[in-house]
Write a structure and sequence with these properties.
With about 140 residues, this protein is of the alpha+beta class. The chain has a single domain (about 25-140), classed as Nuclear Transport Factor 2, Chain: A. Helices cover about 40% and strands about 25% of the residues. It is built from six helices and four strands; from the N terminus they run αααααβαβββ. The chain starts with a helix and ends in a 5-residue tail after the last strand.
Length: about 140
């Protein structure tokens, strides 16, 4: 009986140790570019408003959660609708950002499909570093 309990405990520990992150949250300690891309991926591809709101400042998080659905957030806050999208950061500003280690402005390029049409767009986000974690502070006006 004790032998069976030992095997069961070892098997349980093995399964929990090998599992992925249990809640799938975005790692905010990554670079601001990674956080920005993960935010838009959660919103547009995973359709998870709560996951996207977790990497935002309290004010922005409250606004995002107010809309409840990813389509409403995309339509009202970003004026962008996609069925599927690939987001990529602008890499040209990385050297400048390193001079200001606690704040970053990230430009994100979007290339996706909506109603069988290809749609491209650009958005800018302001991120700040709070206690080692990058959070999205503001959605900036369109650069163009």
């Amino acid at each position: 009986m004790n032998y069976l309990k030992l095997i069961l405990i070892a098997f349980t520990l093995l399964l929990t140790a090998c599992g992925d992150d249990e809640n799938g949250d975005i790692k905010m300690s990554e670079s601001p570019e990674v956080v920005a891309i993960a935010f838009f991926d959660a919103l547009y591809n995973e359709k998870n408003v709560k996951k996207a709101a977790k990497v935002c400042s309290p004010q922005l998080s409250r606004i995002i959660l107010h809309y409840k659905s990813p389509k409403a957030v995309a339509r009202h806050l970003f004026n962008m609708s996609y069925d599927s999208v690939v987001a990529s950061p602008d890499d040209s500003g990385v050297k400048v950002r390193e001079q200001f280690k606690d704040a970053a402005i990230i430009t994100v390029y979007f290339d996706g499909m909506y109603d069988n049409n290809r749609v491209k767009d650009v958005k800018r986000l302001s991120l700040i570093q709070v206690e080692g974690d990058w959070i999205i502070d503001k959605i900036l006006k369109d650069p163009f």
